[in-house]
Amino acid sequence: MNKIIIIAILFFTSTTIFAKSASLKGRVINNTKYTKIYLQDITDKTIEIQKLDENGNFTFKTKFKDFDFYLLRLEEKVFTIFFPEPGEKSEIIIDINDLQNPKFTNSIHSKLFYEYRDKLRKLKTSSKRENLIIKMLSENPSSPTCILFIDILKFEKYPSYYKKLSKNLEPYSSSQMVTDFIYKTNNIGNLVVGGQAPEIELNNPEGLPIKLSSTKGQYVLIDFWASWCRPCRMENPNNVKLYEKYHKKGFEIYAVSLDKTKDAWTKAITDDNLSWIHVSDLKYWQSAAAKTYNVRGIPHTILLDREGKILAIGLRGKALENKLKELLGE
Q1: What is the pLDDT of residues 131-161, one digit of tens each?
Q2: Which single residue of 76, 106, 321, 330 has CA 20 to 30 Å from 145?
Q3: 64 and 27 in one domain?
Q4: Quick one: 163 and 252 in the same domain?
């Protein structure tokens, strides 16, 4: 083949690939504190760090060849979510005085996320929130950002929306979060009341694997929690009281931590006096068990009967106490 033709083909191929990558630049305004901005993936792994110039401008060198979920972080609790679509040349303005409302240009999924987040915040009733998410799914049936909102719709009531979105998102399966959603949707039939609870096998603090199925014969509360979760820690005294009252009658707690470090996990166990079963793979939101059980927020609980079937989901506090009274007496 003629060398000129080969060069032309290589040039065309490389520019085509380059054109399909997304890019991001932006500006941080009203800023007197921050000097750097961090690009992180959904697991908090830092991909790139850029210094802010004297006007707060920055440009990331990373080229986003595939869709995924990213964080633009200034510090631990100061961050923005970014969703690149290949081919977009995205820009963002982050106002330190209005951190909850970043302004995106040329980022269709990012704008969609913040648009619906803001709309949801204004709605007080569950029916209105459900109707809004149905509208979002109907108007944006192939947007991966929908998976961050769809759990407002209970699967038992709206299975068709989950299945349709799962099918539509197959082109985005390069994203682990999308792949996880597709997997969960395909297996979500097990996560309803009356379904058999999927197996969990994770290590306890001593490094020994403990299966969920080893607790059969007891009523078991699967408790997804973490040392860094304030509502979880506030709930722990209630669980301690119920465990002391009902454990000898056949009640067990199988606690799955979404911690990232063993020290933080075990310290919380000791500090809160938690004497039940504890397991974790220390993978934060990438916890294998959390993925299997479609955990989107913690604390998250699933109560099992003596055969390992799901009795109830989301019971805490007084509601859990009343259920245990019904099952095991005073």
Answers
A1: 999 999 999 999 999 999 998 998 878 989 9
A2: 76
A3: yes
A4: no
For the chain, how are helix, strand and coil distributed in percent, rounded to 5? 40, 25, 35
Q: What are the DSSP E strand ranges found in 76-153? A: 78-82, 89-95, 103-105
In SS3 terms, 134-203 reads as HHHHHHCCCCHHHHHCHHHCCCCCCHHHHHHHHHHCHHHCCCHHHHHHHHHHHHHHHHCCCCECCCCEEE
Contacts with 7 (C-beta within 8 Å, 6 or more apart), sequence order: none
Task: Please report where in the chains the tokens 């604390």 appear, as a residue.
Answer: 299
Q: Are 209 and 273 in the same domain? A: yes
Q: Give pTM, 2 decimals.
A: 0.63
The tens digit of pLDDT for each residue in 75-93 reads: 988 999 999 999 999 999 9
Beta pairing, strands 300-304 & 103-105:
unpaired
105 vs 330 pLDDT, higher one: 105
Distances (CA, A) of 154 to 162, 210, 216, 228: 9, 30, 27, 27
Give just the sign of the alpha carbon dihedral 60, 61, 63, 68.
negative
pLDDT given for residue 1 in this prediction:
46
**Nearest C-alpha neighbor of 253 from the set 231, 223, 283, 280:** 223
Q: 18-27, 36-45, 86-95, 254-263: which has the minimum mean pLDDT?
A: 18-27
Residue 259 identity: D
CATH number of the domain within which 213 lies: 3.40.30.10
Shortest CA distance to 243 belongs to which of 223, 225, 261?
223
> Bridge partners of 159?
none
CB-hemisphere CA count at 13 Å for 49? 9
Is residue 177 in some structural domain? yes
**d(C-alpha 214, C-alpha 221), whole Å:** 13
The closest alpha carbon to 204, from 144, 304, 280, belongs to 280
